[in-house]
Amino acid sequence: MTPGKDFTPYAPRPATLVRKVRLSDFVTLFEFEQDNGRPLAHKPGQFIQVSVYGVGEAPFSISSRPKAGTNSFEIAVRNIGSVTSALHALPVGAKVGIRGPFGSYFPVQEFVGKDTLFVAGGLGYIPLRSLLRYQLRHRDEFGRIMLLIGTRSPSERIFVDEIEKLSQRDDIEVMETVDCVGDSCWQGNVGVITTLLPKVRLDVENTYVAMVGPPVMYRFVIGACVGDQCISPERIYVSLERKMKCGLGKCGHCQINGVSACVSGPVFRYTDIEPLKEAL
Ligand SMILES: Cc1cc2nc3c(=O)[nH]c(=O)nc-3n(C[C@H](O)[C@H](O)[C@H](O)COP(=O)(O)OP(=O)(O)OC[C@H]3O[C@@H](n4cnc5c(N)ncnc54)[C@H](O)[C@@H]3O)c2cc1C
Ligand code: FES
């Protein structure tokens, strides 16, 4: 769908908060509806700029899958500073402004007919969820879907019920780990996300990787591949977050060695960012 006549990437469009779901102590899911009645028309991996009126604007990944017939979409936000705490304080029915969708996205068509290994560290499940839900919606078009999730502690896990439901399906393989258990009653895997890798047997020639987490995780995951379980970095896609303002490649806030992360990213093929000193 093409944007309407009134579309300008500079002017926030009004949207209404229609649902809030607490995902953890600090993270909340927000469902919005665009007041213009149109679908957001995003691609998995893209982000929007959300303005909380009177406070400011901040970028967030779109967490829902692209949906043609609806004007609703979801983001999930960690409460960390001024815009995010103002967002958390909004009641259902409140208005925000949105710009976008912006940026690059996971090349969904390239993944058709292939296996996908999702690697989500920390809040990385939020952007990956858009691609995952798209693939599950079009399940017949894709091969194996494997989801690895690593979180610092059990209390920081997000989308817990959703992931529990996914792990009960027989058309997706889900594995989760936490770095440390603390005083929780967690009975699952313990250890960093790389400890899950030896537990999945991959058809490496037929597998794409979609990975989102702290950049240091990317190096460790790629460094952890051994023997015949290494996937070519050409088939690994990652997302890089940088502080952003315009989202349009104009202000320079998000530059990584001269590359605008808001336009060329946030989703990059791993081999495209590996040479950039400031990227990882
Ligand atoms: C493309 C993209 C997608 C994003 N997707 C999500 C998402 O889905 N969910 C989510 O919760 N957050 C996401 N973020 C991060 C989010 O934009 C920041 O947390 C938000 O801008 C903080 O705004 P604030 O006004 O609440 O915090 P501020 O008051 O501006 O800052 C609070 C603290 O957060 C730090 N901070 C601010 N922005 C960033 C950033 N981009 N990266 C690292 N540290 C930062 C500041 O240095 C400061 O220490 C994304 C960022 C980008 C660039
Ligand atoms: S945010 Fe302005 S150039 Fe990327």
Provide structural commentary.
The chain has 280 residues and is an alpha/beta fold. Helices cover 17% and strands 30% of the residues. The protein is built from 6 helices and 15 strands. It has helices at 82-89, 108-111, 125-137, 160-168, 215-223, 270-273; strands spanning 13-22, 27-34, 47-52, 56-61, 72-78, 95-102, 115-121, 145-151, 173-178, 189-190, 207-212, 236-239, 255-256, 259-260, 267-269. FE2/S2 (inorganic) cluster (FES) binds next to loops.
Write the SSE topology.
Elements: E1 13-22, E2 27-34, E3 47-52, E4 56-61, E5 72-78, H1 82-89, E6 95-102, H2 108-111, E7 115-121, H3 125-137, E8 145-151, H4 160-168, E9 173-178, E10 189-190, E11 207-212, H5 215-223, E12 236-239, E13 255-256, E14 259-260, E15 267-269, H6 270-273
Parallel strand pairs: 7-8, 7-11, 8-9, 9-10, 11-12
Antiparallel strand pairs: 1-2, 1-6, 2-5, 3-4, 3-6, 12-15, 13-14
Bound molecules: flavin-adenine dinucleotide and FE2/S2 (inorganic) cluster (FES).
Flavin-adenine dinucleotide (FAD) binds next to strand 4, strand 5 and helix 1.
Radius of gyration: 18 Å
Chemical compounds bound to the protein = flavin-adenine dinucleotide, FE2/S2 (inorganic) cluster
User: What is the N-to-C order of secondary-structure elements (H for helix, E for strand)?
Assistant: EEEEEHEHEHEHEEEHEEEEH
Strand-pairing-aware structural class? alpha/beta
Unreliable sequence segments: none
Terminus-to-terminus distance: 34 Å
Shape by Cα distribution: globular
| Strand order within the widest beta sheet | 10-9-8-7-11-12-15
Largest sheet: 7 strands, mixed
